[in-house]
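Bumping with the actual sequence this time:
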Amino acid sequence: MNAVEYAVHARDLAKSFGHLKAVRGISIDVPVGTIYGFLGPNGSGKTTTIRMLCGLLTPNAGEGTCLGYDLLRETARIKQEVGYMPQRFGLYEDLTVRENLEFVARIYEMAKPRKAADEMIERMGLEDRKRQLAGELSGGWKQRLALASCVLHKPRLLLLDEPTAGVDPKARREFWDEIHILAGSGVTVLVSTHYMDEAERCHQIGYLSLGRLLIHGPVDDVIQSAAIAAWRIDGPEAERLAARIRNLAGIETATLFGAELHVTGSDVELAESSLDQLRRESGLRVERVSPSLEDVFIHTMNADDRDANGDMQ
């Protein structure tokens, strides 16, 4: 695949704020129509990376293109074709739904702002709330209005910064259904999230830590590349033995889900040996299962923490 087919093509992007190195040499390619999810702990550089990739923030080093425009020299042209949805609701709460959308349409100098607003209201299912003040909307409806304002001018790239924080599961699911419809029409989506179920709905994902992109790619590839194994342990003694299981040789994590334990380890043979002995002693049921995306990210975070602590010693 050549660079023309990528919505985002970047090499060695870096950004510092004074002495803080927020992003350290990130290289990434995002094909057109892809939903790319950025994951990582707070302060890992997700938002800074997304803003650099779309020309909203100038990198200190590196190069690349967004929608075919140069990230350093053609940022004004990039911004015209980008929709940005920040984590916090950013529309006017004392304006109605229709007034907000009409205002946004005028900002983008659309030929018929009222018509554009009405069409978006119908498309996003906001008809019954078009005369309601934005400040009176629930979290889910505010989210839908914010998305409507982002796509009103028909951007080719959509940026979503933790867009579903504090939104109920039903609204989150409906939001993601709409995102997939947009991607199916050719819109590229960059999204930061803390929710593993949302990450699994992305076409590709990347995990950032301390400004570095540690792992990235399609979800299944990321899980396989982590080279970790997982087991489910259940039985009457599972909960009582949780602390002991966490200390078994080869076991990295042991997490209770109700009366079951979900266990992971990267040294499969050593972990299997420890769990076989546990099974014989306690009579617990131990079953090998597929690792989850959350398992992979916890493993990656722990490994990165160990590396960071090693570097400081």
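The tokens above came from a reply further down the thread. Residues 275 and 286 are 7 Å apart (CA to CA).
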